[in-house]
């Protein structure tokens, strides 16, 4: 039997994903691709699968640990070795400990210390501190003179610049004191609590209340994803001047079209909800209104116009709100979009999304249609400049010039960053989306 270590694979560049659940215990038999632990990053929760099949002999992590790519997860005794290998392993089980302490190799290593006293190897402890395979080169590559001695990746440095956080004042919680994104969030939170400069330009803190004074209560810890979502929403609300425009789309004909295709949808194994049509309409409107498909850059001095149309869809999960991204919406059919909506929503609920599946969005659609409500004002998912809120459709009387006729109306709310999008841009975009949903034949044009 051989012992193999399962390590954290590429998780999309996440900085310090937290272990939130152990799925196996020592002695468990695991299959290849079976989940071992659940990691939660600043973007998603994901299971880390086993790369081998066998028996778990050691668990190398605990809940709350911060892991990066390449970190050890478990050690597995792998079954299925050849007959020749098995006896060798048995013999080695007794023989290996003895050669290790043998004094004979020590003389051979005696010459090794000779170079050690020399001054040259002294810097070796610093690279040794960065011995984890991935982090060392990253730290060396992205250390700027102004922050020499600060151990942080490019994404963390970029976020620190956006927040105006001095990295030298942040205590790192990652391996070898590496500064992680959550360390920046905690730094900002402490600044809020202490009334520092980072506390939102003097925004007063909400005083704590002892709710037990008024009756029975229960205190639970928020998930990391939930807290980071709150931080991102707060940051967006403080930094983005929001404007929300509202309108109703007449989807009477669209609903009839969906009913006519119910049998075909069942044969294809997909659910043809209004959402794929809304997403497709947004892609067409983004193409014709490029201001909504841009992002601020260069400290607000530049605008980046994207030539692709990747649209995120907000998904409500037990772990918190996540936004998987559907890529190249303009190139996909309604059937393809319907299948992808279902697949990504299922992965989100099962915590199978990878960070890569949640990056690169140009625009977001947040639909509460299956929950209810006549309208809401969604918060822009920066660095995007627009988000479309979709509420529950309802049959209402509409004056057609002669009589009131029953029509199915879908409430829409477009929130946008007023630094980039003005009222005319937002009005034209929303009007086009309403028109496209009112006559879905235009989606083919």
Which SSEs are present, and which pair or pack?
Blueprint: E1 2-7, E2 17-22, E3 29-30, E4 35-40, E5 45-49, E6 54-59, E7 66-67, E8 72-78, H1 85-95, H2 105-109, H3 125-129, H4 135-142, H5 154-163, H6 181-194, H7 224-239, E9 242-250, H8 252-260, H9 262-268, H10 275-288, E10 294-297, E11 302-305, E12 311-313, E13 315-317, E14 320-322, E15 325-326, H11 334-349, E16 363-367, E17 386-390, E18 394-399, E19 404-417, H12 423-438
Parallel strand pairs: 12-16, 16-17
Antiparallel strand pairs: 1-8, 2-4, 2-7, 3-6, 4-5, 6-8, 9-19, 10-11, 12-15, 13-14, 17-19, 18-19
Describe the structure.
The chain is of the alpha+beta class. Helix content is 29%, strand content 22%. It has twelve helices and 19 strands. The radius of gyration is 28 Å and the shape is globular.
Q: Gist?
A:
29% of the residues lie in helices and 22% in strands. The chain is built from 12 helices and 19 strands. It has helices spanning 85-95, 105-109, 125-129, 135-142, 154-163, 181-194, 224-239, 252-260, 262-268, 275-288, 334-349, 423-438; strands at residues 2-7, 17-22, 29-30, 35-40, 45-49, 54-59, 66-67, 72-78, 242-250, 294-297, 302-305, 311-313, 315-317, 320-322, 325-326, 363-367, 386-390, 394-399, 404-417.
């Amino acid at each position: 039997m051989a012992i193999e270590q399962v390590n954290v694979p590429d998780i999309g560049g996440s900085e310090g994903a937290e272990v939130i659940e152990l799925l196996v215990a020592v002695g468990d038999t695991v299959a290849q691709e079976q989940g071992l632990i659940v990691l939660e990053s600043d973007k998603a929760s994901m299971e880390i699968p086993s790369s081998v099949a066998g028996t778990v002999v050691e668990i190398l992590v605990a809940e709350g640990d911060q892991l990066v790519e390449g970190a050890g997860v478990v050690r597995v005794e792998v079954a299925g070795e050849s007959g020749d290998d098995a006896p060798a392993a048995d013999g080695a089980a007794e023989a290996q400990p003895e050669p290790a302490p043998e004094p004979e190799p020590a003389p051979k290593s005696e010459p090794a210390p000779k170079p050690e006293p020399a001054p040259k190897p002294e810097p070796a402890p610093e690279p040794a501190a960065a011995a984890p395979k991935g982090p060392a080169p990253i730290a060396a590559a992205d250390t700027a003179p102004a922050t020499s001695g600060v151990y942080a990746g490019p994404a963390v440095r970029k976020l620190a610049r956006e927040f105006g956080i001095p990295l030298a004042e942040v205590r790192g919680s990652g391996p070898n004191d590496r500064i992680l994104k959550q360390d920046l969030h905690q730094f900002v939170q402490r600044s809020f609590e202490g009334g520092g400069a980072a506390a939102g330009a003097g925004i007063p803190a909400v005083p704590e209340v002892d709710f037990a004074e008024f009756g029975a209560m229960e205190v639970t810890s928020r998930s990391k994803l939930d807290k980071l979502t709150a931080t991102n929403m707060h940051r967006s609300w403080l930094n983005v001047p929001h404007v929300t425009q509202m309108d109703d789309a007449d989807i009477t004909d669209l609903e009839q079209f969906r009913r006519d295709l119910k049998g075909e949808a069942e044969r294809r194994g997909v659910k043809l909800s209004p959402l794929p049509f809304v997403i497709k309409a947004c892609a067409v409107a983004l193409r014709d209104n490029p201001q909504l498909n841009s992002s601020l850059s260069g400290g607000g001095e530049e605008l980046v116009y994207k030539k692709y149309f990747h649209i995120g869809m907000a998904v409500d999960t037990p772990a918190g709100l996540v936004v998987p991204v559907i890529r190249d919406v303009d190139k996909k059919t309604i059937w393809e979009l319907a299948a992808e909506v279902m697949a990504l929503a299922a992965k989100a609920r099962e915590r199978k999304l990878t960070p890569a599946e949640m990056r690169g969005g140009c625009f977001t659609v947040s639909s509460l249609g299956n929950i209810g409500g006549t309208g809401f004002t969604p918060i822009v998912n920066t660095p995007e400049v627009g988000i479309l809120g979709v509420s529950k459709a309802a049959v209402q009387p509409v004056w057609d010039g002669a009589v009131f006729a029953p029509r199915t109306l879908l409430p829409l709310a477009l929130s946008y960053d007023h630094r980039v999008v003005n009222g005319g841009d937002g009005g034209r975009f929303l009007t086009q989306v309403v028109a496209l949903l009112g006559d879905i034949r235009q989606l083919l044009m």
